[in-house]
Specification:
Elements lengths: L1 H10 L15 E14 L2 H6 L9 H11 L4 E11 L3 E12 L7 E12 L16 E16 L8 E19 L2 E18 L11 E3 L7 E13 L2
Antiparallel strand pairs: 1-2, 1-9, 2-3, 3-4, 4-5, 5-6, 6-7, 7-8, 7-9
Length: about 230
Amino acid sequence: MIRLIAVLVALAPLGVWADPPHFSNGGFNFQLQYGPGFWTVDQNKLGEDPGREGLRVGPTNAGLFKDSLQNTHTVSLSAAYNILGHASVGADLTATGWNLFDASRGGGGMVIGKVAWHPLELFFMKKEKRPIGLDASTFFGVGYGIVGGGTAVEGFPNGMDGLLFEWGANVDYFFARYFGLGFFVRGVFLNWEKFYLDFNNRDVPGNTIPLAKPLGGSFWTFGISMTFRAGE
């Protein structure tokens, strides 16, 4: 990714760029992102958690939960308002799923509010317009996520949900004033405290196991993005 940025900057004097956006004017950004997703969960920590209210997950359910999570296709939708080219405020919706057409289907969804910093604007503050259609940002967020699927004890799909924290980065090149392509990486850090023996009946008494400590672990995704700008 660093090499890509260097090549784009080096080619700028050759005049090969399209008319870049007026980044310093701000505006709305809408992104569609696609790539693989990867789960990391500490099975031993989950199985050994003493739980609360006299309930605990135990090694068997912890193993079933970890085995149910699959690394597969992931899609993210993002909307944000950019402030004078320097910062953005917005939200992400990330979804992943597997075995969608059989009994072992599962998936997860994450909704996160975020803020982003666009450091390239610092280098072009004294210019009327950025000479290249290149933008980069790093973002941080907090929100809610839920995942369920696989087959647990007695055939019930298990799951978890709770608080999430997010970090990521984007690099985008705008081929036209209102359209760009780029690359992204996103890490979602799981702060979940509820384990569901039967994901489909989460409100049934005794089905929810509250953890003594948050799960930890993470979900990572990276890939390509399409960005649409509006409202300059």
